Automatic annotation (TrEMBL):
One Gene Ontology molecular-function label: NADPH dehydrogenase activity
Ranges for region Disordered: 726-755
All residue ranges annotated as the NADH:flavin oxidoreductase/NADH oxidase N-terminal domain in the record: 383-716
Name of the protein: Bifunctional salicylyl-CoA 5-hydroxylase/oxidoreductase
CDD domains: OYE_YqiM_FMN (cd02932)
Organism: Streptomyces broussonetiae
Length: 755
């Protein structure tokens, strides 16, 4: 096999070395346009996981790395003159130049032909002459651009400027330091990589960089200014450049990673923000996987397909974590007012890869100090601390999220709703929410949706609330009121979600006459008189909800239903007083809120669910979402339930664990009001992490409660908690310990004999 490698970074070099080691007969040529000693940046951090893969695949490289690694365990967070240290993290780093030297030596010893100071031939030429072409030519990959029509790259530039620098002393921990200057917030990321050297990255938002004049001075002058700003962290020493320039980070994503016999590797295929230290790690792991797939598969085509199948989920997960970390630093100013320890905890858990439970294992004393500062009683996980909304005190921070069941008859909830909601109330959550309860027959999503537009429906709901209050004391039950708008008159979810009914359709109304998707029914634009009628329907439903005994009412202004349709510029094309600017788009939802609030008991809280983004170009922006939250708060909303999307069919959500939480976090801090976070929050560890970091006040979980109605009780048992934040119903107490799953008393071996 003849292999061409474009690019002499760690990924390309390591791929060449591995392929040659696995089969010395391979003819491998690597092109690197720079000289052997040319490198950008300073230190490289590798994880124990990556090192384990290197040790298994090439002990020679592993041993060489081991001799040069600097290791440390601590992270220091310096904020407003206070330093908090968290231990147990385990880092290993070495100089980038030394890493390249080790890989150069290994390639030469194996017989790889490395051609420095040489531009690689055109990818078409290489593809014709070689059996495999590995494009490891970096974030600005020429190969990727050559075949852009196949790879379909998406390159996203972000909001911060940063610069890689060096210092001539070793930090004794990974250091994050925040500087609040007259121009704005700046941050330093620093870590040691040799006995006498550290990497220092200075980062700030673009507008801060410009306000500080760093765009209008020479590189040396800007570096000197940064050294003065962070003089305490640098011990008064200078910063050093290595062809360093200010740049913006770009996230690279490709729809495909290979084209015929050409394959992308490392930054050419994907990038992950430096704040989680994954660029070199991903490239090295790519090389390991590619080499393994070439050994395991019968031909190049199947090997490249297997390589992409194996690596894509791992890379996507890392990119999600990196994006969360990147955005946390972009929006750092939101968190500056937090108590110092909570700020440090928030920073440490920003990517969601380090969690409350994980951090407790690493540094129990630090985590307990954060909990004490937050107000957790001894032995109480954050999720089991109480929270007050108006006259309602929730005993814990867990909410059973609204979930449409599509099991009502003529809008009347039946035995299914009693068992469904009753079981989840017995399961220990602080608040159980109904599905979206419709305010009229025409406002239903499907024929199976529940309502509150008749007295019979209200009586049926009273049966549910009475059960919850009598049998699950301490659990509150809330009702979510809504109107389907243009997304109504559709089939039950399992018969075809959002698909029109084959017969028996009812007419639809909406902010504007726009169908939800091709093939959907065309709604009529609501007239002023119809708006008044619908407002009265909400008011009547709220009055019935109060009489039915609900503890909390939520107004559904999300997911493209009627009120959401007024809020989004993609679904509101009106030219009257109810369309146009955000102020005008808010007018009708606020009119409905005010009317409902007027009849809803003053001591009972009201929340509003919104879609904080439409996940579509031209839709609701993050700034809009904050403005919407502020408007509802000004009218008396007690909390905002922050969801996203489902407004337009052409949305492109960025799914991932806790993926909607950053929107809740921003609203909480910018609008200054309580929020409920929702969206792929699946573990009690996530709930504890989000609550303790101050990113949300309550966490709403849907699918976990479908899987386990007693999710909250089990979360308490698994954490060894038995306090006032959750109570097992008396008939269930015997089940409060996990049952044994098999024999555990078998004798253990006492001797190990050599054979």
């Amino acid at each position: 096999m003849k292999v061409a490698v474009i690019g002499g970074g760690p990924g390309g070099l390591y791929a060449a070395a591995l392929l040659k080691r696995l089969d010395p007969a391979r003819e491998i040529t690597l092109w690197e346009r720079n000289a052997p000693d040319d490198t950008f940046g300073f230190g490289v951090v590798l994880s124990d996981e990556t090192l384990g893969g290197i040790e298994h695949a090439d002990p020679v490289v592993y041993e060489a790395l081991q001799r040069d690694f600097v290791r440390w365990d601590d992270i220091d967070i310096v904020h407003r003159g206070t330093t908090h240290r968290s231990g147990g993290h385990g880092f290993a780093a070495l100089g980038r130049r030394r890493l390249l030297q080790i890989l150069h030596e290994r390639c030469r010893s194996l017989g790889v032909d490395i051609r420095f100071r040489t531009e690689a031939p055109h990818p078409d030429e290489l593809s014709a002459q070689y059996d495999l072409v590995i494009a490891a030519d970096g974030v600005h990959s020429t190969t990727r651009e050559t075949y852009a029509h196949v790879f379909n790259p998406q390159v996203t530039a972000h909001r911060c400027r940063y610069i890689w620098l060096g210092a001539d002393f070793p930090f004794d921990a990974f250091r994050f330091e925040i500087a609040e200057t007259e121009h704005g917030v700046m941050q330093l990321h620093g870590y040691p990589y040799a006995a006498d050297s550290s990497t220092v990255i200075i980062e700030m938002r673009e507008e801060v960089w410009r306000a500080a004049g760093l765009d209008d001075v020479t590189p040396n002058e800007s570096i000197e200014r940064c050294a003065k700003i962070f003089s305490d962290a640098l011990r008064g020493r200078p910063l050093h450049s290595n062809n360093s320039t200010w740049t913006t980070f770009r996230t690279v994503v490709n729809d495909h990673w290979s084209h015929n016999n050409v394959v992308l590797l490392g930054d050419a295929a994907h990038t992950a923000h430096f704040s989680i230290g994954s660029g070199t790690k991903l490239a090295v792991e790519d090389a390991l996987a590619l080499a393994a797939c070439l050994e395991e598969q019968p031909d190049v085509a199947r090997a490249l397909a297997a390589y992409e199948d194996e690596r894509r989920p791992v890379v996507a997960s890392t990119q999600r974590a990196a994006r969360a970390s990147l955005e946390w630093f972009e929006n750092l100013r939101l968190h500056l007012g937090q108590p110092p320890r909570q700020f440090a905890f928030n920073l440490l858990t920003r990517s969601r890869r380090v969690t409350h439970d994980n951090l407790r294992l690493r540094d129990e004393h630090f985590t307990e100090a954060v909990e004490r500062e937050f107000g957790c009683p001894p032995g109480t996980p954050p999720m089991f601390t109480p929270f007050r909304l108006r006259g309602l005190t929730l005993r814990n921070r867990v909410v059973v999220s609204p979930m449409d069941m599509y099991c009502a008859t003529d809008g009347v909830p039946g035995d299914f709703h009693l068992v469904h909601l009753g079981a989840r109330a017995l399961g220990g959550a602080g608040l159980v929410m109904t599905e979206m309860v419709c305010v009229s027959a025409e406002g239903r999503i499907t024929p199976g949706c529940a309502g509150l537009y008749t007295g019979r429906q209200a009586e049926a709901w009273r049966r549910v609330t009475d059960f919850v209050h009598a049998q699950a004391p301490g659990t509150a039950i809330g009702v979510q009121l809504g109107h389907s708008g243009r997304k109504g008159s559709t089939r039950l979810m399992w018969e075809g979600m959002d698909e029109p009914l084959p017969e028996g359709n009812w007419p639809l109304v909406a902010a504007s006459p726009l169908p939800y998707k091709p093939g959907s029914q065309l709604p009529r634009q609501l007239s002023r008189a119809q708006l008044t009628d619908i407002r009265e329907q909400f008011t009547a439903a709220a009055w019935r909800a109060a009489r039915a005994g609900f503890d909390l009412l939520e107004l559904h202004c999300a997911h493209g239903y009627l009120l959401s349709g007024f809020l989004s510029p993609l679904t509101n094309r009106r030219s009257d007083a109810y369309g146009g600017s955000l102020h005008k788009r808010l007018r009708f939802p606020l009119e409905v809120f005010d009317a409902v609030r007027a009849v809803w008991p003053a001591e009972r809280p009201m929340t509003v669910r919104i879609s904080a983004t439409d996940w579509a170009e031209g839709g609701t922006s993050a700034e809009d979402a904050v403005g919407i939250a502020r408007a509802f708060a000004a009218h008396g909303a007690d909390a905002i339930d922050v969801s996203t999307g489902q407004v337009v069919a052409e949305e492109r959500p960025e799914f991932g664990r806790s993926y909607q939480t950053p929107f809740a976090d921003r609203i909480r801090h910018e609008a200054g009001m309580p929020v409920i976070a929702v969206g792929a929050i699946s573990s009690w560890d996530d709930v504890n992490s989000l609550i303790l970091a101050g990113r949300t006040d309550l966490c709403a979980l849907a699918r976990p409660h479908l899987y386990d109605p007693h999710w909250t009780l089990h979360a308490a048992a698994e954490q060894g908690y038995d306090g006032p934040g959750v109570r097992w119903p008396a008939p269930y107490r015997a089940g409060s310990r996990p049952p044994q799953t098999g024999r555990t008393d078998a004798p253990k071996p006492r001797l190990t004999l050599d054979r």
